[in-house]
Amino acid sequence: MSNLYWLTEAQMQRLRPYFPKSRGRARVNDLRVLSGIIFINRNGLRWCDAPVEYGPPKTLYNRWKRWSDMGVFARIMMGLAEQAPDNRTISIDATYLKAHRTASSLRLKKGGKAA
């Protein structure tokens, strides 16, 4: 039994309208790359720890970075939320969110005084 995560074809059909148009060369397999990105984020892994079934880690990272900068993932989330039946509230499970200790608002300012 495999522990890898794979999007279904039905899920891909819902996501495809939000993908940016390909310029020049065809993109690497969207199903494989997006499944890999979800697997990495879901499990809190480093890009270099991606299972080989998802392809090269650099490909996963480059797609994630480029599409994040372009707002593709935000548009996907907004679009899917708008399609929710009966205007239900969509929530994010915070157990997958992580914050680094340096992200705290209690960091010291210059001179050693608290903010």
TrEMBL record:
It holds the Pfam family DUF4096. Coiled coil: none annotated. It comes from the Bacteria. InterPro entries: IS402-like_dom, Transposase_6_like. Residues 7-77 form the Insertion element IS402-like domain. This is Transposase. It comes from Sulfitobacter brevis.
